[in-house]
Amino acid sequence: MAKIQIKTAVAAATIVTLGFALSTVAPARAEKVLQGEVCSANVHKLTTDIDWYKNLHKAEDAAKKDGKMIFWVHMVGKIDGAT
Q1: Does 1 score more than 80 pLDDT?
Q2: Does 35 map to a domain?
């Protein structure tokens, strides 16, 4: 009988703890949706103001020569969202 009471108490404490933990989590907040013109301007700036390498080996050689790191972006689709 004592084992059942202990298991019940442990289960109740777990449920209370989980309930408290879930109730204190901040709600998810969605980012605002940008207008098409703003997105288009951001994509244009990203694709024209940065010199991108299309070949990883060339990027590695340039990074080694300049003592810099490589920021690798691998995309599926087109950056402007028109996939």
Answers
A1: no
A2: yes
The answer to whether residues 81 and 47 touch, using CB atoms and an 8 Å cutoff, is no
pTM greater than the 0.90 cutoff? no
Please tell me which residue, 45 or 20, carries the higher pLDDT value.
Answer: 45
Residue 79 falls within a domain, yes or no? no
For residue 50, the enclosing domain spans: 2-66
Cα 29 to Cα 60: distance, rounded to the nearest angstrom: 38
Query: For residue 67, what pLDDT is reported?
Result: 95
DSSP secondary structure code for residue 35 in this structure: P
State which amino acid sits at residue 11.
A
CA nearest 45: which of 5, 80, 2? 80
Query: Is residue 46 situated within a structural domain?
Result: yes
